[in-house]
Each structure stands twice: as C-alpha cells, then as structure tokens.
Write a structure and sequence with these properties.
By secondary structure, the chain is of the alpha/beta class. It contains seven helices and 16 strands. Strand 10 (about 220-225) and strand 11 (about 235-240) form a beta hairpin. It is globular and about 80 Å long. Bound molecules: fe (ii) ion (FE2).
C-alpha cells in the first residue's frame, strides 16, 4: 500500500483536523465517529477510484433521500436496521438473556400516542372492506407467567398497504392502538388483515434498489411494541405465513419465531358468533418479555418519530 494517498502524512493530518482531534472543544464521541466515517469515505474514494462525478451523484442522492424522508426506509433496505437487531441479540446472549420473543425492526411508520384501551380494541374505523381479522394472545415473562398491565402498542397497514397518518385519506390513528393486557396477560383486537407493501416506486430508496437489482417489497406484517414495567421493551413484528415475500422481505424483518398464520374461518356458525356476514381471519400470538437487567442497556430507542397533531 506504499502508493496509497490515504496513508500519507498530509492526509492523516487532514483527517485529524476535520474531526477536531487537535482541539479540546467539541464532543469526543462525535469526533471519534466523524473521524472514522470521513476516513472510511476517503478510503472508499481511493480504493474504488470513485470519480468526482460519482461522488457528487451520491451527495445529490442523499439530499433526495432526506427531502423524501426516506432514510428510515433505506436503512432497513440496506440491512442496517437488521444488523442493529443482531447486535442487540448478541449483547443479550452474552448477558445470558434468552427465551423472549425475537425482536425485529421498527421501520419508519410508527406514530406515537395511539388511543389506549383496556384488554381489547378495534383498530379499524370500519371504512376498510378488507378481510376482518381477530388477533389475540398473551404477554408473559420468559417462564410463561402472565404479565397483566403490559402495553401492546400495535400498528399496521390497511388493505392497500398504506399506514394512517402517512396516508392522509385514513382517519387519525386508524389501525393503531395501545392495548393494556388484563390480569391474565391477555390482549385481543379486531382489525382488518394487513397486506404487504413496497417502497414508493418513484422514491430514492427504490431507485437505489433498482441499481442493486433488488425489489422493495415487504410481506404482510403487523408491528408491535410490547412493554411492561420491569421488563425489556420488545420491538417486533409478526409476518404472515404464506405471503410470497415472507422470506424475501426487502427490509430483512422476517425471523423464525415471528411467523404467524392467519387462519381463515368460513364456518357459518363462527361467522355468526362474531357478528359478521362473511369469512374472517384469526391470528393467535403470544409475546414473551425478558426482565430488565441492570447490566444490559435498555432496549428503548430514541429516534425521531411521527406524532399526530
Ligand atoms: Fe410496516
């Protein structure tokens, strides 16, 4: 590597100066990360012989990504959000924490502050004519002991693959609720069956995926935050069995232990008992939470999230 510009004294000096290493002011953590990031970018430019036009194309791309508010989409698309999950798994494994429901990515479409219901809720506002879904289950600790008073914060797409708030045609908090489990740890809700969806076809995330020869589709899924005092917050999703993208999720969110079957109920008596006039689907899924441990960092993630006005 003797002909590497990167390893020369002037470049080393430059990288030290750009990240403020010659100053006591500023933030040490930021300096360390910026120094590494800028160094790696310079290394990429040199190693891959990136032309100035290519470089500025990339900068323009990042501007487009920000303007389209799609960082939250590209990050899972590039597997980075899944990698962060794998790191959290590893930290827990090393600390001896195991047995809880697997985590998986949050994605960019959570909206804080959904209405809180006790025990059960209806998530849809009645305007979506998709397949009716009843989902229920329990929240327990890893030994199977029910956790009453846990909060199941659930959100999912409508039958067109769109999320309320981001899709202004839907009512406020449609398909979003927080459900407090009863004394036996049970939750249940009525909704409509979510369908899979894809990245906006003309957006910057899909543009890059096209260049990578990849699709931007997700299988049908339902998102959850499950929390209870004294337990580690679980961020997860269930992915629906049978979906053609189940194992081809562009966001890499499908995991063993998170695949749920939506069972079709066509029996007239069952339909009648539910007060319906057509077949419906049922999902049963239990969540298991690990206890909080002082030596392991909490799983609460602080990130910019949408908030309904
Ligand atoms: Fe989603």
């Amino acid at each position: 590597m003797s002909d590497s510009l990167f390893n020369t004294g002037p470049v080393k000096d430059l990288l030290g100066k750009v990240s403020g290493l010659d100053s006591t002011a500023g933030n040490e953590r930021v300096k360390k990360v910026v120094q590494r990031a800028v160094s790696d970018i310079c290394r990429i430019i040199e190693d891959l012989d990136v032309s100035p036009t290519e470089f500025w194309t990339a900068m323009s791309y990042l501007t487009q990504l920000g303007k389209a508010n799609e960082y939250g989409l590209l990050v899972p698309g590039l597997g980075i959000e899944h990698f962060i999950d794998l790191r959290l798994d590893e930290i827990e494994r090393k600390a001896g924490l195991q047995g809880g429901t697997p985590r998986t990515i949050e994605g960019p479409l959570y909206v804080a502050g959904a209405p809180l219901a006790k025990g059960e809720a209806r998530l849809d506002d009645g305007t979506d004519h998709g397949e009716v879904l009843f989902m229920e289950g329990k929240v327990t600790d890893t030994a199977g002991k029910p956790i009453g008073g846990a909060i199941v914060d659930v959100w999912h797409a409508n039958s067109l693959g769109n999320y309320s708030f981001f899709d202004p045609t839907q009512s406020a908090y449609n398909l979003r609720r927080r459900i407090e489990t009863d004394s036996e740890g049970r939750y249940r809700f009525r909704s409509i069956l979510a369908v899979g969806y894809g990245c906006p076809p003309d957006g910057p995330t899909q543009k890059l995926l096209n260049l990578l020869g990849r699709h931007g589709k997700r299988p049908a899924h339902i998102h959850f935050f499950v929390s209870a005092p004294g337990y580690r917050l679980l961020t997860t999703q269930i992915n629906l069995a049978g979906d053609e993208y189940l194992y081809e999720d562009f966001a890499f969110a499908t995991r063993e232990g998170l695949i749920a079957e939506a069972v079709r109920r066509t029996d007239p008596q069952m339909i009648k008992a539910r007060g319906l006039d057509r077949p419906f689907a049922e999902i049963k899924f239990d969540f298991s939470l690990n206890k909080s441990v002082e030596s392991v960092p909490e799983t609460v993630v602080i990130r910019e999230r949408a908030k309904a006005a």
